[in-house]
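REQUEST ID: PR-0412
SUBMITTED BY: lab tech R.K.
PRIORITY: routine
TASK: structure prediction, single protein chain
INPUT:
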Amino acid sequence: MIAVLTGDIINSRGQEKTIWLNSLKSVLATKGNTPKDWEIYRGDEFQLQLSNAEDALLTAFQIKSRIKSYENIDVRIAIGLGDKTLNARKITESNGSAFVNSGRKFDELKKEKLSLSIVSGNEFFDKEMDLLLRWALVNIDGWTAVSAEIVYLFLNNPALSQTDVAQRLNIQQSAVSQRLKRANFDLLIQLIDFYKEKIRSL
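STATUS: complete
OUTPUT:
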């Protein structure tokens, strides 16, 4: 089972493109090579494939926290789980159930006014994850830029201590703790771990 993430930048026209584009590229580049594994197209849309479906939710939160580190901007992501039946030179030309699931869900996200969703084709799994993500997004969609920045640092460097991050950002350790608490970081990690357990059981 692979995962395909299809997404776009929310409110991209209200921002200087180079600000978020370089950040998006920096995250995607850690997941594979372009255009085989990821590609940015139509200005502010992107697609990424992950050979290990367990990594999908963590990756989505890494992208989301990186983009939300800038004011007044967000990212919408549809995660599709499944197989890959056509392995093309460019990800946008590849095919399989993971691509179909991701593409269809991405088209629905704007209507549903959601910024993150997962589709696997397994009705029970999809219903369960949809409910959990809707609850999580109540908090995540409200992340401030400084909270998102903290989340991104810890998602990418789990071994970092709060003291390390405080020194890096030149803020008090107590401020790091407060931002993590406001972002409900502990619950976010629990959700990622829960998702991984469910994927293993599929």
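NOTES: The first strand starts at residue 2 and ends at 10.
REVIEWED BY: pending
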